[in-house]
Amino acid sequence: MGRYAIRRLLQLVPVVLGTTFIINYMVWQLPGDPFAGRCGQRPCPDAYVTAMREQFGLDQPILVQYWNFLKNLLTGNLGVDFNNVSVASQLADAWPITIRLALMAVAFEAIIGIGAGVLSGLKRGGFADNVVTISTLFLLSLPIFVTGYVLQWVLGVQVGVIEPTVSEEARVSELVVPALVLASLNMAFTARLTRTSIVENLRADYVRTAVAKGLTNRRVVGIHLLRNSLIPVLTFLGTEVGNMMSGAIITEGIFNIHGIGGLMWRAINGQDYTIVVPVATLLVLVYLITNLLVDLLYGVLDPRIRYE
Amino acid sequence: MRVTKGAKIAAGTALLALGVAACGGGGGSSSGGENPRAATGTVYIRGCEPQTGFVPGNINETCGGTINGFVYDRLVKYNSDTAAPELNEAESIETTDNKVWTIKLKPGLKWTDGTPVTAKNYVDAWNYTAYGPNAQLGSFWFADIKGFDKVNKPDPDGPDGPKEAPKPETDKLEGLEIIDDLTFKVTLTAPEAVFRTKLGYTTFAPLPEAFFKDPKAFAEKPITNGPFKFVQWDHNSQIIVEANPDYTGPVKPKVKRIVYKMYKDDNAAYADLVANNLDFTELIPPSALAGDKWKTDLGDRAIEGQQGVIQTITFPLYDKVYGGNADFRKAVSYAIDRKTITEKIFNKGRTPIDGWVSPIVEGFKDGACGDLCTYNPVKAKEYLAKAKAEGYTPPAEFPIWSNADGTHKDWIEATVNSINQVFGPDAGFKFVHKDMPTFAELRDTITQHKIKGAFRTGWQMDYPHIENFLNPLYRTGASSNDGLYSNKALDEKLHEADTATDPAQANALYQEAEAMLQQDMPAIPLWSYGLQAGTSKWVTGVKVTPFGELDPLSIAIK
Question: Which residues in B lie closer than 8 A to residue A47 (C-beta atoms)?
Fold first, then answer.
């Protein structure tokens, strides 16, 4: 497994190089001068535009710019953005909040989603199954911004049990409702996925054998059934983590959470490639690493899978 | 509501800051009787992340501009009710010919580091901003001061060209002269009646000695001279300012601390306002404006008024196809039903204008447009026929461009429909709305004069004077003359107005110049922006400036 992991890690290098180059290239290709919209209806002074282009190396050819970017990335120097604020410090402010929110959301997805899925899968056609099916259908049909605004308005403004927005510190207690909103859609997916998987595996030979051996119900479900049924769910949750690390622009906007999503959104609008490129690069890394972890976890869950 | 003179602006604009009823409308999470703001003396207002650090000469957007106005005092400030310029740090601003100005500062003014505010602080700051290699966004504001061409050299082939701008021969403006500690003299290249009014603009603030030692660090945590001092800036999240205990101005801050809380989404700020977690926002989201929901939500915590921003549609006059001719542009103007659009799309949040100038500024005169800005389908068709008879054939599809990252889609589509309905299906052409993805791309295309169609233009005043709506927009070669309009007679009239020594006469000349825009209609005036703001139930006395920002000296805790 160690060799497999190392091989996979080495594969990351060309992938990261390729994606970062594409990201750099695409940002370069964006129409419009990033400094054209900075002075409203007036054109910016020539001296300002020249100075900014020089400071950020925009007057260099793309390959030179890419080389500088790589050099800076490897030395950990992310520089400043177009507003002359340190990119690293902005990331350091935003990322922990995003990670906290993402982990909470994934935890909700896993606990509630898998729980509901197991419950409905075991008692197929029963009352619990119907409740889960209907409520997941309901959640699936609601876009996130509807869930978000409704919960904010009802709980925050009308009833007043939560604050409508999250404070600067983004404490765990404040993030519960945003995390639930963020998780709502995929919680339903997880529940349905678990249910199907459980229903399918209930009929499998190894479950029948386990039951015939006289194992307790708890052991059959907990050890044999669940371990096998969770493989597809795990894949789904794994990519979810990657997804959520990139920030949840809509949820962050509704609850005014100062995470990566908002930072990215502002940077893309302002064509501030000094933020877009490093964040996108880090996201690529997060995706690749979570994918690797998911693959490795397969081996733990399913003894038939061996990595060499 | 239309107003004509400064004196009436107070009533007309009605920037009413209504006191807040103790148990006012809307729900609230903190609905106890105790005022939570009273203990700390802190109020929370809506904010956004500034694009530049706090160097006044380098700020040109409202996110930074708002805080900048809280922490820096200038020679002149604008009255929050009337928009009239009043002396602030200046004890006197004197001139006999509008060309040489002698400015005397009030004694005893202090920076927050304890050093006195001197004439040198002003002169040094202005020299720094004007000096080309410092690349300050506000440099062009000093172009009227004698010697600007020696400190700021234009790039011979623009920023895109390979040539570099030559190094200026000096870094001091010849027209600035320090007389003594508190007095300095400004010499302009030509007389300029409006110079006194201009002095209230951000860029004309002074800078302390400390700035010049480390401009970069200063921009993050400035030493200032205003009613509030700068405390802390947490990027993308909040800026904190505190009342300046040494402030000598006649009106002192009524709160101890203002937290400028940044929101990415106006809806989030609004939810916080309704729940009384936020004490002020000047951006009520469209969802709350629809059906006047915000007035029901906020009750007497709602503030309505006017601000010095107007919306226009500009034509690329350099383009034979999309520039049209004068009669065509007049026909289009006649075909826009401004009243219905402002009522249906903006819920009366905007007011139709019939001139090219915001109704709240000094020198405004009603009706500069004649009847050209009134909806009149009959005349529209008449002028269209005339335009065609003169040999202009409109293209089959005539776009009006906007940027998709703003909220312009609805009104442009309504405008386009209005025009198409008037001209009818047999006109041989139709107007359409088209978007560019970002504001930057739209501006880039416009300033490179490559745009194929008419485009939306808005003008937010820099200072409340009629001159600010004419010179930068319609003078030949002016910085924001996007349509490349050129009219010799208008240029002469504007020059005459600029150099008039009597302010009243200058205003009359500006009004004549404005009326001359009728001939060619280079831009079609649409409406002026209203102001919708709201407060929490914890604060009182809130006033909003004609720039649509909170007057920091007005807000008080109940």
Answer: 132-135, 139, 152, 155, 165
